Automatic annotation (TrEMBL), chains A, B:
SUPFAM superfamilies: SIS domain. This is Fructoselysine-6-P-deglycase FrlB-like protein. The lineage of its organism: Bacteria, Bacillati, Bacillota, Erysipelotrichia, Erysipelotrichales. InterPro entries: FrlB_SIS (IPR035488), Fructosamine_deglycase_FrlB (IPR024713), GlmS/FrlB_SIS (IPR035490), SIS_dom (IPR001347), SIS_dom_sf (IPR046348). PROSITE patterns: SIS. It comes from the Bacteria. It holds the Pfam family SIS. Coiled coil: none annotated.
Length: 321, 321
């Protein structure tokens, strides 16, 4: 079923939805963030929250009931906590939409509505998960509350794949330079703001810590000046993800500070890929997708120079834990 | 005015409040988190969100209007972003409650209702900010929606100071051992769950990065198994903050993993201070206060052995940025 039709079907059954809960783990939680961010910023009546799955399972919010929509997400559809959360949400009477790459997975079977996303084949395919989550949010907002920028958002959701395919063509030299420069660093900090905030988080915990066993921390760059910036010094390594949108002033302020004190700074800037002119008025919500896709190439180059494939794990998928 | 009376006054003027926004920066944002967590978990109709102040200023949520309560927080009451957010919220017609230690500060003048919290004098005084924010949430919930555990929560808010004063008496030996053991570490990870999630964050970005210039990262311990745990190895330094409440299973799972692989692990456990028996049914919401107070002693000991006072800064309060 098309996403638009899924929401229309839910609305027929549940015309008075109050709460929208997003539930996932790790990268999948982070990839729900742009949708959560968009909806929290633009909804006038809907209640919005984002949970790591076991937080949702153990301390279940009282708003989880028949007036809720729950969007769960897991790439392979096997994350036990997320499958449990999806089942719990169904038991509580919520309408449950699961987003997964595997339409036969346990998660795909623990939902009312299944959204299968692409993954393999291109950098833009890897952003299909984040984009479909965002489109679900756009449809929820428009159908339940109305949304004046609906057409621009839907156009963005349709156009973003081509924009990403174009963006990733040019970044290999910068990605190689990044990998050479950061490969031996003892810790790498990643920061951003706006809808891209959790891209910084997922690059830190998944690409660097999980897939490269490199030390890392992440935080919102608006928070940078309220603590973390005291770590800044010549050659301390940072990655700054700059949005094309309203929160860019925070990104720029952080960049000015990093440059002033000669930190080792790598910038991935949505503006470099023309997002603002391609998607006027809504570029900020698509910044995380372009930046994530570009970051994937940076991670691949880091994996090559460090001789540590992105697929290499010591615990994940290997042990019971 | 008493907090209970503040909310009663707001309710008279605004009987149909829809949204409660929490706004602060750095530690003050983190100290609003238990209140936000409590309200998000227990409210059936109210919409809840927490913002770093400039995110609120630049990408102001559409729900900020005359049907909103905004709670802003800044220790000294001078944080420019938070003062701006407080003014913005007043302009938009929201009821604005400011929490600050300085009743004459710019923030104290940019609000409808002022809540002055204690700070100096004791470890429990330092938790007054977090506790008053929580009490505001309890009153909002009870007066707007009703809340069956209201009495237990109010009792907790009243009793927690004595519980903290007692808790901190016994921890100096462990704090000294922690300081000796972690003083030369290149990076320290901090994690927790539930209402204590952001205590891990603030210890990481404020106590370690800001006040000790030590590298650090933090994440939710339910997320640990979805990325960060691949960094675990013999002697990799972690601080695990364990809650006395529903999310403890996540904390315990992380502890089991850290011990299994001989990570360098320091645990601050709310259960060690009898929280569950002292505050039956609501201990989870007070875990962050006891743990934060204890952590303060750990930070003080770290500062002593590293000969780096907690007051020492190179940028904050010294430069324009």
């Amino acid at each position: 079923m098309e996403i638009k039709d899924i929401i229309a079907t839910i609305k027929k059954e549940k015309p008075n939805v109050k709460s929208v809960y997003y539930v996932g783990c790790g990268a999948s939680q982070a990839e729900l963030y742009p949708a959560k961010y968009f909806l929290e910023a633009n909804a006038k009546a809907l209640r919005i929250a984002l949970y790591t799955a076991n937080e949702f399972n153990y301390a279940t919010p009282k708003g989880l009931n028949e007036d809720a929509i729950v969007v769960t997400c897991s790439l392979g559809g096997t994350t036990p906590e997320t499958v449990a959360a999806s089942k719990l949400a169904m038991e509580k009477g919520a309408a449950v939409i699961a987003i997964t790459n595997n339409g036969e997975s346990p998660l795909a079977k623990a939902c009312h509505y299944l959204v299968v996303h692409n993954w393999e084949g291109s950098y833009s395919a890897k952003m299909d998960k984040m984009n479909k989550a965002l489109l679900i949010a756009v449809e929820i907002l428009n159908q339940y509350e109305g949304f004046e920028t609906y057409d621009a958002m839907v156009n963005g959701c349709n156009s973003i794949y081509g924009i990403i395919d174009e963006a990733v063509k040019s970044v290999l030299p910068e990605a190689k330079a990044f990998a050479d420069s950061y490969k031996d660093d003892e810790v790498i900090y990643v920061m951003s703001s706006g809808a891209t905030h959790k891209v910084a988080y997922s690059f830190s915990i998944c690409l660097l810590m999980e897939m490269q066993w490199m030390n890392s921390g992440s935080f919102h760059d608006g928070e940078f000046f309220h603590g973390p910036f005291e770590i800044t010094d010549k050659n301390v390594p940072f990655i700054l993800l700059m949005n094309d949108g309203r929160t860019r002033a925070m990104d720029s302020r952080a960049l000015t500070f990093l440059e002033r004190f000669d930190a080792k700074t790598t910038v991935i800037d949505a503006k470099d890929f023309g997002l603002g002119s391609l998607l006027p008025g809504v570029a900020e919500y698509f910044s995380p997708m372009v930046i994530s896709a570009v970051l994937r190439i940076y991670a691949e180059q880091l994996a090559i120079v460090r001789n540590h494939p992105l697929t290499k794990r010591r615990y994940m998928w290997k042990l019971e834990y």
